Amino acid sequence: MSTLRTPSDLTDLPDALRSIFTGIRGKVTPDYPLASRTWFRVGGNAEIYFQPVDTDDLRQVIQRLNGTWPVTLLGACSNIIVRDGGIPGITIRLGRGFSQITREDNSLIVGAAALDVTVAETAALENFAGLEFLSGIPGSIGGAVRMNAGAYGAELSDVIGWAEIMTSSGEICRLGVNDLGLSYRTSRLPADAIVLRVCLHGTPGQKEHISARIAEIKASRENSQPVRARTGGSTFRNPPAEISSLKAWQLIDAAGCRGLQIGGAQVSEKHCNFLINTGSATATDLETLGETVKSRVYQQSGIELHWEIRRYGVPSPVSEVRS
Ligand SMILES: Cc1cc2nc3c(=O)[nH]c(=O)nc-3n(C[C@H](O)[C@H](O)[C@H](O)COP(=O)(O)OP(=O)(O)OC[C@H]3O[C@@H](n4cnc5c(N)ncnc54)[C@H](O)[C@@H]3O)c2cc1C
Q1: Mean pLDDT, to the nearest integer, of 269-276?
Q2: Phi and psi (nearest 5°) for 283?
Q3: Predicted confidence band of residue 243 (pLDDT cuts 50, 70, 90)
Q4: Which tens digits make up the pLDDT trace of 159-189?
Q5: Strands 128-129 vs 203-204: parallel, antiparallel or unpaired
């Protein structure tokens, strides 16, 4: 596995990128294996993987790139499939410099790389109620904004005050909840916007009650979801109520797909809207299984499911695509 390198060693970078990363303090690595970074543990390499140390580092790279290379942003990779051929262009993952959590009156100011569970636990320590639902979502706050993550009757749109984002020109701006256009597991955030930090609102609470609710959520998840498996969470969105009163998992179950297997990919027996990598799955196995489920559900019910999981990259190695 290639190790992350500081940009003092830029010899392996394509010529066109050397000037972009000169003087940058973060780590940049060509041909970086992504599989171990993802919850599914599948997928190819990032053509160029970049971990900025802070906002300034990120801004310099984004400004110098000026839209010339495709940029893909990864969070905790708990809702994505990276395809087997890897991700062309620059793949960015925000690191420790973006994970600060600070308290301001009845708000938490949270960096985009902070994990949802850390935010929930920090809120409990601060006697700050209302963010318990985040404890069961295994992503980062940046991913939670993009996906409007939610569980147990609450979602990010209920608690977010604003999000600070970086645009593709490196400009930083603050978007209020209406500008974010958050709705069921999606947002109107421009595809190339990078969430840097957010303000989350809560209400005064008691640590013991908040921690008890977090424990309750954890137990409930253990019972209903394959939380220890290599998975990507809910594969498909639930159809809108006007289209079906059944949830995605019920439609999948009714179509006889519970436990269905293609290669090393399987529809979870425990929660059939979850796909799992049983150990030897490729991204192609998982995607083919998902498409098979979609088509069986359509044949059985006439309802078209839509992927909630985001899929990135190309089926064949980037080097083959470029040659
Ligand atoms: C076991 C399990 C249980 C789950 N349960 C739930 C649940 O109950 N509720 C729920 O909503 N989800 C659930 N999920 C799905 C997932 O955890 C959420 O969608 C989460 O918000 C994704 O965050 P992430 O950081 O992992 O994002 P990733 O999976 O890395 O990326 C998802 C999307 O967010 C974008 N993104 C990530 N960071 C940023 C950023 N800083 N700025 C802009 N865009 C960004 C990515 O580009 C991508 O488009 C579950 C997943 C698993 C594996």
Answers
A1: 96
A2: -65, -35
A3: very high
A4: 999 999 999 999 999 999 999 999 999 999 9
A5: antiparallel
**Contact residues of ligand 1, CB 6 A cut-off:** 39, 73-80, 94, 112, 136-140, 142-144, 146-147, 149-151, 185, 194-195, 225, 227, 231-233, 310
Distance 311 CA to ligand 1 centre (A): 12
Q: Which of the listed residues 34, 51, 55, 79 should we mutate to test ligand 1's pocket, taking the one with most ligand atoms within 8 A of CB?
A: 79
By residue count, the chain amounts to 323
Catalytic center residues:
185, 234, 308
- How much of the chain, in percent, has pLDDT values that exceed 70? 95
Q: Which residue's CA lies nearest to atom 50 of ligand 1?
A: 233
Asked if 108 contacts 65 with a C-beta cutoff of 8 angstroms, the reply is: no
CATH of domain 236-307: 3.90.78.10
Fold of the CATH domain 99-210: 3.30.465
- Is 69 buried (19+), middle (13-18) or exposed (0-12) by CB count in 10 A? middle
CATH of domain 15-96: 3.30.43.10
Sequence-ordered list of residues with C-beta below 8 angstroms from that of 48, at least 6 positions apart, any chain: 13, 17, 28, 29, 30, 32, 69, 89, 90, 91
